[in-house]
Design a protein that fits this description.
It contains 18 helices and 8 strands. The protein has 450 residues and is α/β, with parallel strands linked by helices.
């Protein structure tokens, strides 16, 4: 729904700006006011950025519509401030006397779009009904995802079909009668999709013929791995078959994608460096003043194709943090952190010097976070597919960083890997931009991670 809203509101903002400018300005004033089409594009992009920064495109399943509408006002206020700065920097971007009309029409259009989309969603018009094949642990997680409303779409699990050989993990009341075929159950309950959550599909109890009958009968049949990828932006390790990674598409590493990503890395890192330069100077002074120790900290990490490089960070821990020479997981409230270190870790300021690693080509701005060699050896041994994350450059920020908290154990590493695998498989410029926006939300407002 977030992507639908973004596209819809992009069209609304473009139409409002273009229509108001062209209707208000005649040819003589249009020259004085600048390029109306360039101004309209700038208006739409700045407003979308402002709304994204304040979390307008995040999925808030329990938030009332009035709270969402209230957040539009500070979003437009932020957009007005940013656009005012942009107008002074780029003379071609200007609305003349139509500025108030443009903002008014844009705000009205966004309000109406939100009202229509959210009202439709709450009424169940956009809700999808589905049936799960299997009643094990993966089926239970699908039911929990539907109940929490954290997925990309709203869906309702009408029931589960038990398959012999699986330990039951769902409530008895969710089980559907076994005497009916899957296609009959789907038509009876008006389900448009069947999600296969069975782990062992080699025994004779797996209903291959019935699933084929459903596919031929117009009912979509989806593997659990594809379902979690679509709804939760995760590639789940517990539901993953090796063939899914091989034949599932994605993993774009073409020359064009590499070139676009490198340009994005340089532009984003350069902009962050310029904007955060005062913050970095103040941080360096505070670190030095606290204990007189070094400002920066270099540490070996594993990068692209398993190559070792030295990552640069602001020092956030005591100088003797690993005096025993044994690596330890870093936690969000690590007792080894200094007073300054706790603040810069909380605000992610300690990561800013890694822009130098990006300029040197050792890292990307967005990608899986690089891990230390000691832990990589352990995780590659204990966690399936962990080494897949090393097929692209590590990042200063990433999907796992904005969707999950600090990793302080092997279990946390597994949960973060599910987001990393999704990014490696589906990485694109659009996804990089979304992660950049969510990173800003996490740093400035503490939003995004869950």
């Amino acid at each position: 729904m977030a992507f639908t809203l973004l596209l819809l509101e992009l069209l609304i903002l473009l139409s409002a700006a273009s229509g108001a400018s062209l209707a208000w300005l005649d040819g003589r004033h249009a020259v004085a006011a600048g390029n109306p089409y360039l101004s309209s594009l700038a208006f739409a992009l700045v407003l979308l950025f402002s709304m994204s920064t304040l979390g307008m495109y995040q999925h808030h399943p329990r938030e009332e519509l009035r709270h969402t509408l209230i957040r539009i006002m500070p979003s437009f206020a932020l957009g007005f401030a940013l656009l005012s700065v942009l107008v002074h920097l780029v003379p071609a971007i200007h609305f003349g006397r139509a500025g108030s009309l443009v903002f008014g029409l844009g705000a009205l259009g966004v309000l109406l779009a939100r009202l229509v989309v959210y009202t439709s969603a709450q009424s169940g018009m956009l809700e999808e009904r589905l049936i799960l094949v299997g009643d094990g642990a993966i089926a239970r997680e699908c039911v929990e995802l539907a109940a929490d409303r954290l997925g990309l779409h709203q869906f309702n699990v009408v029931g589960c079909v038990a398959v012999a050989g699986e330990p039951r993990c769902v409530a008895q009341g969710l089980l559907l009668p076994a005497e009916l075929s899957l296609l009959s159950l789907a038509r009876q309950h008006e389900a448009r999709e069947i999600v296969v959550t069975v782990g062992d599909r080699r025994n004779g109890a797996f209903p291959v013929r019935q699933l084929l009958e459903c596919a031929l009968g117009g009912v979509a049949v989806t593997d659990a791995a594809a379902f979690f990828e679509r709804e939760a932006c995760q590639i789940r390790i517990d539901s993953l078959q090796p063939s899914y990674l091989i034949f599932g598409g994605g993993f774009d590493q073409s020359f064009l994608r590499a070139g676009v990503k490198r340009c994005f890395d340089l532009l984003a890192s350069g902009a962050i460096c310029l904007l955060s330069l005062p913050v970095m100077l103040l941080t360096a002074l505070c670190i030095r003043a606290e204990d007189g120790g070094p400002v920066f900290y270099r540490q070996e990490r594993i990068g692209l194709h398993g190559r070792v490089f030295r990552v640069l960070k602001f020092r956030s821990m005591r100088v003797d943090a690993e005096g025993d020479g044994k690596p330890a997981w870093a936690a969000s409230d690590d007792p080894r952190a200094t007073r300054v270190g706790r603040w810069i870790r909380k605000l992610r300021i300690d990561e800013l010097p890694q822009m130098l690693n990006v300029f040197q080509g050792e890292m990307s701005f967005v990608g899986p976070r690089p891990e230390r060699g000691y832990f990589v050896e352990q995780l590659c041994r204990d966690v399936p597919y962990y080494n897949v994350r090393h097929s692209i450059k590590p990042g200063v920020t990433g999907l796992a960083q904005v969707r999950y908290q600090y990793g302080a154990s092997v279990d946390d590493a597994v949960r973060k890997l599910q987001y990393d695998l999704y990014y490696v498989k589906n990485n694109s410029l659009f996804l990089d931009l979304l992660i950049l926006i969510e990173t800003v939300q996490v740093v400035l407002f503490g939003k995004g991670s869950r």
